[in-house]
Structure formats: structure tokens, C-alpha cells
Write a structure and sequence with these properties.
This is S-adenosyl-L-methionine-dependent methyltransferase. It is built from 11 helices and 7 strands. It has 332 residues and is an alpha/beta fold. The protein has a single domain, classed as Rossmann fold, CATH 3.40.50.150. Helix 7 links the parallel strand 2 and strand 3 (175-180).
Length: 332
């Protein structure tokens, strides 16, 4: 069987999303669509991408947390890409990013002996605490706006009452703790500690799809706070960074960037930093092997280039970064 550029069999039909929601769940999602700003709504868009790439991303709750509108919109983009034989199908970056975070999280927890604190900053509609078995001995903390956490809980409770598939709605982590806080404020760490977080315990910090929504000063404060934890306990940071050109994709939404996060993070206190680009061997997962897709074309160019020499278009890059440190390590 031949393979398309996106790593899927040519004869595979992308299934339409499952839209079997209860009236209560539909009403809750209607509130999201009418009342939430674009930053909060991005959580549902991310969930929609995971739901529609379910052939590679295992997230049974993604469709429920995404909602009908975002699922339909994402599905139409994918259908259009397939009809046009696009080299990059909508959502492939999101699928790769999710798989990268899942893989690195599992490896980090394993390196800690199978248990750790896991903190998701800007958790949104993330469902890792419900779907990853590697968290069975770990305490998970989800930090986000109060209304986001309340809505997520309301959707899950409503689904629990209306479905027989209750097993997938059960938390797989040792514990799940929600922390209502805005990481743009200075009190989020204090609120995290009040919820039970212990700074002296080994911790994995997940910042997925969140840093570039912050201002430069806000993002730096968050990164400095996490870097300081390296002086207290074994610490792993998993985060994605946009380069400067990527912020031009939506100048009204994206703000913070770093062209060289592998230089930035050691300067803050991390002793070991590994950077990957979409399409690298550890950030490809069989989905991006076409040498002519956008991501592989960018990877072949020096990271210092701001525009592509072939067409003059901005070199928009997304970096996947793992940084770590501990009290007994020094920066090399």
C-alpha cells in the first residue's frame, strides 16, 4: 500500500467527528463560543485537533472537550487539505507536538523512578491526567483561569451523567489537583503550593502551546520561576517556543518568542537543554517523512535565516524543548 506525504494510506477516509453530545454539554459549549476570548477558546481548538488525529493520538476525551463547532471547523480544514493533496494536513503540527510531549513526559517520569509532580501551566482542555497510564503514581496539577477549569469540570461531569463510557472519564493519575490562577500574575506559584505542590519534590513542568501568548516579561518570569526550582529538586521543563517570524502569523495573539531557546534556558539556570524541530527524528512519528514538506525544508536551513531563500517567505519555526536541572548539577 502506498503512502501519502502525511503518513496516511491513500485510501484512508478521514472519519467525520463524533457529535453525540447531551443537551447539557451542548449548552456548556455554547457558553464557550459566546463568552470566551480567543486565548481560552484555543484550548478547545487544540482538543479538536487531537480528536481528529485520533489514529495517532490516544485521547478519548478530546472530542468531548473540543465541542461541535471546533470539531466541524477543524474537520473542514482537513478535508480541504486532503482534496488538494496538501503536503501538510491541518493539525499535523498539533499531533506531533502532542506525541512529543507525551513521550518526553513518560521518559521524564521514568527517570524519576516512576513518580513525580506534574504541573501543566495553561492546562486548558488537556486530558493527560485521564489518559496516560504513566501518571498512575504521580500527582498532577492543572493551572489555568478559574472559568476554564470550572467549565472543563462541568463538561466532564455532564458527560459522566449521560454516558455509559464512564471508564474513560476516570482519572488515571495518582491525584488531579486544579489550581485557579493566571500565570501572568505573580501569585500563581503561591496558589500552586496551597493546592499541595511541594517545591522540594521532583517535578515535570509542561508548557504546551502557552508561552507565545504571554508578553516577553511575563514569559520570562514564568521561565525564571521554573528555573529556580532546579535549585530545590530534580526538575524537567517541557515547552514549545515560537521563533520571531512565527509570531507574525497572528501579531495580535502571539507575543513572546525565542530564536534560540537552547541558549536562553541555560542562562536562566537549566543545566541540560535539548531542542528539536518539527520533523526531527524525535519529533516526526512517521507523519512528516516527505522531504519537500514545509517543516523538512525549514530544517535544512540555518536557524539564523529569517526568510526562505527560495520564495522569500518568513521562516516560521516551532521548537520543542526539554530542559532539566537539579540541586547537584552545575551549568556547563
Amino acid at each position: 500500500m502506498s503512502e501519502r506525504q502525511n503518513g496516511l494510506p491513500e485510501d484512508q477516509i478521514w472519519p467525520e467527528p463524533d457529535l453525540l453530545y447531551s443537551d447539557t454539554v451542548r449548552e456548556l459549549h455554547a457558553v464557550i463560543e459566546s463568552d470566551w476570548d480567543s486565548l481560552r477558546q484555543s484550548a478547545c481548538q487544540t482538543a479538536a485537533g487531537r480528536a481528529l488525529w485520533k489514529h495517532v493520538v490516544h485521547d478519548p476525551l478530546a472530542g468531548l472537550l473540543a465541542g461541535e463547532t471546533y470539531l466541524k471547523s477543524f474537520y473542514e480544514k482537513i478535508k480541504k487539505d486532503r482534496l488538494n493533496n496538501a503536503r501538510e494536513v491541518s493539525g499535523v503540527i498539533l499531533a506531533v507536538r502532542t506525541l512529543w510531549f507525551d513521550t518526553k513526559l513518560e521518559a521524564a517520569i521514568s527517570s524519576f523512578g516512576g513518580a513525580a509532580q506534574v504541573v501543566l501551566l495553561g492546562a486548558g482542555m488537556d486530558a493527560r491526567a485521564y489518559r496516560l497510564c504513566c501518571l498512575k503514581d504521580s500527582d498532577v496539577y492543572e493551572v489555568d483561569f478559574c472559568d476554564v477549569l470550572q467549565m472543563k469540570n462541568s463538561i466532564l461531569r455532564a458527560a459522566m451523567e449521560s454516558t455509559s463510557e464512564r471508564q474513560q472519564l476516570m482519572v488515571t493519575a495518582k491525584s488531579l489537583n486544579t489550581v485557579a490562577a493566571d500565570i501572568r500574575d505573580n501569585d500563581w506559584l503561591k496558589k500552586l503550593q496551597i493546592a499541595g505542590f511541594v517545591p522540594e519534590k521532583s517535578t515535570v513542568w509542561i508548557l504546551e502551546g502557552i508561552l507565545y501568548y504571554l508578553s516577553h516579561s511575563q514569559a520570562m518570569e514564568v521561565l525564571k520561576t521554573i528555573a529556580h526550582s532546579c535549585t530545590l529538586a530534580r526538575t524537567v521543563l517541557l515547552a514549545d517556543f515560537m521563533n520571531k517570524q512565527s509570531t507574525t502569523l497572528s501579531s495580535s495573539v502571539f507575543h513572546f518568542y525565542s530564536d534560540w531557546p537552547d541558549h536562553l534556558l541555560p542562562s536562566l539556570g537549566f543545566s541540560d537543554v535539548k531542542l528539536s524541530q518539527i520533523g526531527d527524528p524525535d519529533a516526526e512519528y512517521g507523519l512528516l517523512h516527505d522531504p519537500l514538506n514545509l517543516f523538512n525544508k525549514l530544517r535544512s536551513l540555518p536557524r539564523s535565516l529569517q526568510t526562505h531563500p527560495d520564495d522569500g517567505k518568513p521562516c516560521c519555526r516551532l521548537y520543542l524543548v526539554q530542559a532539566s536541572g537539579s540541586p547537584n548539577q552545575t551549568i556547563s
